[in-house]
Write a structure and sequence with these properties.
Blueprint (H helix, E strand, L loop, with lengths): L2 E6 L12 E5 H9 L4 E3 L2 H34 L1 E6 L6 E6 L1 H12 L8 E2 L2 E3 L1 E10 L2 E11 L1
Parallel strand pairs: 4-9
Antiparallel strand pairs: 1-2, 1-3, 5-7, 6-8, 8-9
């Protein structure tokens, strides 16, 4: 039985993930993978296309990482002042949420940060720090000073 190489266009159970080159039997390739548009024959042209696509994706990821490193510098250079309602003994009425921090960053610095990327747990007045996940391996630690209104 002849074996041929196929580049998978989508994840195929038991064979591999999208973009992988797999060696399968001739019949399986023609009757299932090629017919169902789940793969293409691994010709030199197709291999070249995949290689250039991988380079573009790597370049795009590198650009995103560099942008997040720049954003980290901007965020860590500033101390945000947040004025909130507090009780007489300095206790806050509830905690400061990541949504409040995100809107404050937008107001003060003009930066759109997704509230889901902000790890906030501020429950008292005074200086505190908040971690913001900007990229898979880039985190910014933002200083926040919480004062009573």
């Amino acid at each position: 039985m002849a074996k041929i190489q196929v580049i998978l266009l989508e994840d195929v159970a038991g064979q591999g993930r999208k973009g992988e080159i797999v060696t399968v039997s001739d019949g399986y390739a023609h009757n299932f993978l090629l017919k169902g548009k789940k793969g293409v024959l691994a010709t030199p042209e197709e291999l070249q296309k995949i290689e250039s696509r991988k380079k573009k994706e790597a370049k795009k990821l590198e650009e995103e990482r560099n942008k997040s490193l720049e954003l980290k510098k901007v965020l860590e250079a500033k101390t945000l002042n947040l004025s909130v309602k507090a009780g007489e003994n300095g206790k806050l009425f509830g905690a400061i949420t990541s949504k409040e921090i995100a809107s404050h960053i937008k107001d003060e610095l003009g930066l759109d940060i997704d509230k889901k990327k902000i790890e906030a747990n501020i429950k008292a007045l005074g200086p505190d720090e908040v971690v913001i996940k900007l990229f898979t391996d880039v985190k910014a630690v933002v200083k926040i000073n919480v004062v009573a209104k």
